[in-house]
Amino acid sequence: MSSEQTIRTETDVATDAEPLLRVEGLQKYFEEADGFLDKLVGDAGKVQAVDGVDLTVRSGETLAVVGESGCGKSTLGQTILNLHTPTGGSVEYKGEDLAGLSAKEMRPYRRDLQMIFQDPLASLNPRQTVGKIVKAPMEVHGIGDDDEDRTERAKELLDRVGLKPGHVDRYPHQFSGGQQQRIGIARALALEPELVIADEPVSALDVSVQAQILNLLDELQDEFGLSLVFIAHNLSVVRHIADRVAVMYLGRIVETAPVEELFENPQHPYTKSLLSAVPRIDAADRTDRVILEGTVPSPLDPPSGCRFHTRCPAVIPPDDWPGTQRQFKDGFTFRNRVLAGEIDADAVRERLRADGTTPDDDEVAARIVEQSLPGDPADLPPEAADAVREAAAALAAGDDDRASDRIADEFTSPCEREDPRTVSAEGEREHTATCHRVDPDVPGRPDVF
């Protein structure tokens, strides 16, 4: 990256044409209370499902939003459509802010903004015929001269999505999963919308059926002039349908780029890990698999700084770190496990006993290091190795607080202290990443990843 890189928001990199949809700083928090007392004293936590998302969608394009399950993708889609009231931020459709509008105020916009849901059967009323399901939006918005006209429109839509016009009198349970999703698509198109949010529309379907639905969506987009927000957890699904991709992690967008640029030149370590999991037909195209350690943190208490730093294979060492980045990452992983209370010394002791020994604290501490430090402690710089061993000894002695105090300051990173900025990739105005490692102003970032 050159010094000419600029710090930008995703909306800064849109083309000069005004986007159809502009999302800025969008937040959606949910109250999480354990019981009546929490609600009474106001001590409930907040699930930060969506936390400061910027996105743009242009007329006729497909923007894919991808990320692991639980990262907030579905909540983002529903909040954009005001199915969830935003906690903060704005959602502008053709320049009009929809955030927080009442159901009555949203009604004029519902014709233009529709959704295809992840579970096709759960989104279809089992007591209504397919014809009634597809006609319902028309009735609400006064489309069609009469019921007969709406029925004919429904038959045409069913035919267009690959079903038979005669299916209007059948019920959802009489169809396969792929056919049910086609019904959902027909319903979404009944109002001739401009923007459709498709929430993992193929994740519940067999691979062969997935391809059929993706091809159908591609055809319908061209025919109806649709703009699509396509939500998925699998990058391989979106490559041939999306124009641009936004990668989401724990409520935030970490990278946005044109689809081919993202596949060829990913900038964020999280994006690289997702791409490394995409199957390749040609072995020569296969990249080294990046295995992420640990689990996705809770959105109730997300990590400080970069939210990915607890799992990042490229976490940045401090300026005065005397070892390699790989050594730092090993120690940083051990530190995080200690601070998170993930190391159970009693369980380690019991496993040693099950092996037929009567372990003392030194043996327990040695096993803790063996199991919880990814590398060899002998490879760490001396002071860092001492900190690891002393923290493990404190855990073995049952003093978790002393273990945390000993290890807490030994492995620190700018990734955990500061929020990363959004940076444009060199020469790619529309390619942005929110990561300290691609920020030219962050010391230590040139370490190889």
Strand order of the largest sheet: 6-7-8-3-9-10-12-11
Helix content: 25-40%
Terminal CA distance reads 14 Å
Write down how many β-strands occur, each being a DSSP E stretch of 2 or more residues: 12
Low-confidence stretches are: 1-8, 10-15
Structural class computed from helices and strand pairing: alpha/beta
Q: Which percent range describes the beta-strand content?
A: 15-25%
Largest sheet: 8 strands, mixed
Helical run tally: 16
Over all CA atoms, what is the radius of gyration? 26 Å
Summarize the structure.
The chain has helices at 36-41, 73-80, 103-110, 130-141, 147-160, 177-189, 207-224, 235-238, 259-264, 269-276, 325-339, 345-354, 361-372, 382-396, 400-408, 414-417; strands spanning 21-32, 45-57, 62-66, 88-93, 96-97, 113-116, 195-199, 227-232, 244-249, 252-258, 422-424, 432-434. The protein has 449 residues and is α/β, with parallel strands linked by helices. A hairpin with a 2-residue loop joins strand 4 (88-93) and strand 5.
Overview of this protein structure:
This protein has helices spanning 36-41, 73-80, 103-110, 130-141, 147-160, 177-189, 207-224, 235-238, 259-264, 269-276, 325-339, 345-354, 361-372, 382-396, 400-408, 414-417; strands at 21-32, 45-57, 62-66, 88-93, 96-97, 113-116, 195-199, 227-232, 244-249, 252-258, 422-424, 432-434. It is of the alpha/beta class and 449 residues long. An 8-stranded mixed sheet has the order 6-7-8-3-9-10-12-11, with helices on both faces. A 4-stranded antiparallel sheet has the order 2-1-4-5. The two termini are 14 Å apart.
